Amino acid sequence: MNIVLLIPIFKNTTWLQRRCDPVNDIFDNCLEFVGGKINVNEDIDIAGIREFYEEVKIKLSKNDIVEWMSFDFKYPSFAKKHIFKTYKINIEHNTNLYKQLSENKKGQWYDIVTLDKLNIPKANIQIAKELQKEIR
């Protein structure tokens, strides 16, 4: 399964939303980046923009996102591995987007230094470590 994640960055913080998923309890109450499944024949960047709008109701353009990293991860409880494609959203020069996310009740800004101490999905630990490397 191909997954796209969008990672908003502002200074040394990133925006995460809380997931409520009692059916898949390994994700229930986790903090996670915005994203989801890439549909068949869908461009990855368009999938990310679509997922961002579906989840937080904020419209992005291709100019707002920058391709970052890709990696594979296999959860033991799933039959297939997940292929993650990630994009960063640099908010330093987009104060309107920072304000919209700050006012969004679905999530909040978290210090990148503390990401690995938060309840995040196992696949996102690799992202947390890479973000932490970048700010050192």
Overview of the molecule:
By secondary structure, the chain is an alpha+beta fold. A hairpin with an 8-residue loop joins strand 5 (65-73) and strand 6. The mean pLDDT is 90. It is globular and about 40 Å long. Strands 1, 2, 3, 4, 5, 6 and 7 form a seven-stranded mixed β-sheet that branches. The termini are far apart. It contains three helices and seven strands. It has a single domain (2-135), classed as Nucleoside Triphosphate Pyrophosphohydrolase.
Short description:
The chain is α+β, with helices and mostly antiparallel strands. It contains three helices and seven strands.
**What's the domain count?**
1
CATH architecture: Alpha-Beta Complex
The CATH topology annotation reads as Nucleoside Triphosphate Pyrophosphohydrolase
CATH superfamily: Nucleoside Triphosphate Pyrophosphohydrolase
Helical proportion, percent range:
25-40%
Strand content: 25-35%
The first-to-last residue Cα distance is 32 Å
Structural class: alpha+beta
**Helix and strand element order:** EEEEHEEHEH
Number of helices: 3
Mean pLDDT equals 90
Task: Walk me through the topology.
Layout: E1 2-10, E2 13-18, E3 31-32, E4 34-37, H1 44-56, E5 65-73, E6 82-90, H2 95-103, E7 107-111, H3 122-135
Parallel strand pairs: 1-6
Antiparallel strand pairs: 1-2, 1-4, 2-3, 2-7, 5-6
Question: What key phrases describe this protein's structure?
Answer:
26% helix, single chain, 136 residues, 7-stranded mixed beta sheet, alpha+beta
